[in-house]
Design brief:
Elements: H1 2-8, H2 11-14, H3 41-66, H4 81-89, H5 96-106, H6 110-124, H7 128-153, H8 176-195, H9 205-224, H10 228-253, H11 257-288, H12 299-331, H13 342-349, E1 382-383, E2 386-387
Antiparallel strand pairs: 1-2
Helix pairs in contact: 3-7, 3-8, 5-6, 6-13, 7-8, 7-10, 8-9, 8-10, 9-12, 10-11, 11-12
């Protein structure tokens, strides 16, 4: 283990030629970032989970009530171990032949088996209230992080001239504002990873996981090798469009059509500018071209740039989805999110007559549960961008 540890932290891997970790020790009034500082992000991530729980329970729910967002209650399927076992192990949409077999095993009619699976799927379908809570939490964080980033960077020369990112590198003392900017951002993305199993899932679930992991790896690496200046710029660029995305989703859930339309257009513009123009032609150019003017290329240099290109590929993927939605939005043919699963709409589009008279409007946490009020509210989460979701009524 000691050998593996020494190999992993070998100077020649992570630092330019002629530099050692001893050069990044605190001295001459300079304070440098250290890998041990990142340990605090783990407990902070759990603190974020607690804050999120309290925020969604007490603040986001109240906002949802004031916005007229209502929660529906689905009819719970009867307990059936045979059907439940198939649902959890084989799939949520059994084929006709499987339905016939399950009908014989469970002593239920084919119609009853189909109804059971439909109700079971509806139970897993996330309601508008859940989506509103998640979007509210992310909006508050991204807005706070973006404002904090502006406050921390507005008077820094590398914000306006990316060549300054490498001035005096690596002997760049860490600022207190940079410390907290990094720690809070990494803690938040750690929180997103911890909660991903409970959040609303979309077709780009794997891309979201890759994005969060790539972001954490990038931030960790840039922290350890003192690439902090470029790291703060990357975070600022990513937070800019996320604020507009989450706010657009909030207004979509509240059915403020015009406001949602305006915010979505602004989000698309800001996303394309920040992620497909500023990110590659300013930030990646800054990390790819300028460093070799100061020192020869090394493994860490290639590693960092490859991770940035990976993020860029994800941006291109999400930009394609955004442009598809914009095209349909302009021509009036937008009916669903390009990322959404068909399963999401099944719970709303399946025949209502089968369950007629069985679903009752019940108060849940003080909220009415009229299902019709939720019918067109499916504006899911897409991070990083994180998420895009557009409603069936083109808002």
């Amino acid at each position: 283990m000691d050998t593996l540890y020494e190999w992993f932290w070998w100077d020649r891997i992570w630092l330019p030629e002629g530099l050692t970790w001893a050069d990044l020790e605190d001295k001459e009034g300079r304070v440098y970032a250290k890998a041990s500082h990142l340990y605090v992000t783990v407990p902070y991530a759990f603190v974020f989970l607690l804050i999120r729980y309290l925020f969604e329970r007490w603040i986001a729910t109240s906002l949802a009530v004031s916005a007229g967002i209502k929660q529906r209650v689905h009819v719970k399927p009867e307990d059936n171990t045979i059907l439940e076992l198939y649902y959890t192990t084989q799939g949520r949409n059994p084929a006709s032949a499987d339905i016939d077999g399950l009908s014989k095993k469970s002593s239920l009619s084919v119609r009853q088996v189909e109804r059971w699976f439909r109700r079971r799927r509806r139970q897993d379908f996330p309601g508008v209230l859940k989506k509103f809570r998640e979007a509210s939490w992310r909006f508050v964080f991204y807005l706070s992080a973006f404002i904090g980033g502006i406050v921390a960077l507005y008077d820094k020369e590398w914000l306006y001239d990316t060549k300054e990112v490498w001035t005096d590198f690596p002997k760049q003392s860490m600022l207190e504002s940079q410390y907290w900017y990094y720690v809070l951002e990494m803690s938040f993305y750690g929180c997103l990873l911890f909660s991903v199993a409970f959040d609303v899932k979309r077709k780009d679930f794997k891309e979201q996981i890759i994005h969060h992991l790539a972001t954490l790896v990038l931030l960790s690496f840039s922290w350890c090798v003192n690439y902090i200046r470029i790291g703060t710029l990357v975070m600022l660029v990513h937070d800019a469009s996320d604020v507009l995305l989450e706010s657009a989703k909030l207004f979509n859930y509240a059915k403020w059509e015009k406001t949602c339309q305006t915010l979505f257009v602004l989000f698309a513009i800001v996303f394309l500018i920040t992620r497909l123009i500023i990110f590659p032609f300013w930030l990646i150019h800054c990390t790819w071209v300028y460093p070799v003017h100061h020192y020869p290329a090394f493994f860490g240099y290639y590693f960092f740039n490859v991770m940035l290109v990976l993020l860029l590929c994800l941006h291109i993927f999400w930009a394609y989805l955004i442009l598809c939605m914009v095209k349909k939005f302009v021509f009036g043919t937008l009916t669903r999110d390009e990322r959404s699963d068909n399963e999401e709409e099944e719970g709303e589009e399946s025949s209502p007559t089968e369950d007629e008279g069985e679903q009752q409007n019940k108060p849940v946490n003080g909220l009415s549960t009229n299902e019709k009020d939720d019918k067109n509210s499916s504006f899911g989460c897409m991070s990083p961008p994180e998420n895009i979701y557009w409603s069936k009524t083109v808002y």
